């Protein structure tokens, strides 16, 4: 291990995590807008965990409140992010090359569609297409699903190395955004659709209006 190796690892994290995290946060914001009760619960959790009722103009104080302990207590936020990734996985189609398996020839490519798997009723139940963060909670505590069921970060030895980093990043950004701003869609009649790419972006982007909060 040397400086070049460490530099390459850092660059890989930055490049691999940039578009995927940005796309996930865009879908997350959109899902909150069309599910106002979920948005209300997310904001309430931010208020309760960070005790940020009156500190919207205190940037330093706000940043200090987003610590490890606070992030670990954001169970509902974590559930809402996971539910977003279930319905809108950052990488909707995965291809893998197999080197040796009993029923697959060496060099064959195998595709699985994470976007479709996240919406299958026989995997997630009859409410599979509903945005329902509560499916991830038990007595208010986040309960992770098997990575072979929740496939957005892959599974087994191919599990995404940046999974925990991505969750931390999305939580921090979400907390900061909802601490200082209220949001609404610039065009509430806009037909939001995905764009066919390697990563699942919103076609044309998600255009928002940010309104400073006087209190959270």
From TrEMBL:
Pfam families: p450. Its cofactor is heme. It comes from the Eukaryota. InterPro entries: Cyt_P450, Cyt_P450_CS, Cyt_P450_E_grp-I, Cyt_P450_sf. PROSITE patterns: CYTOCHROME_P450 (PS00086). Keywords: Heme, Iron, Metal-binding, Monooxygenase, Oxidoreductase. Gene3D superfamilies: Cytochrome P450. The keyword NAD does not apply. Belongs to the cytochrome P450 family. This is Cytochrome P450 704C1-like. It comes from Camelina sativa. The lineage of its organism: Eukaryota, Viridiplantae, Streptophyta, Embryophyta, Tracheophyta.
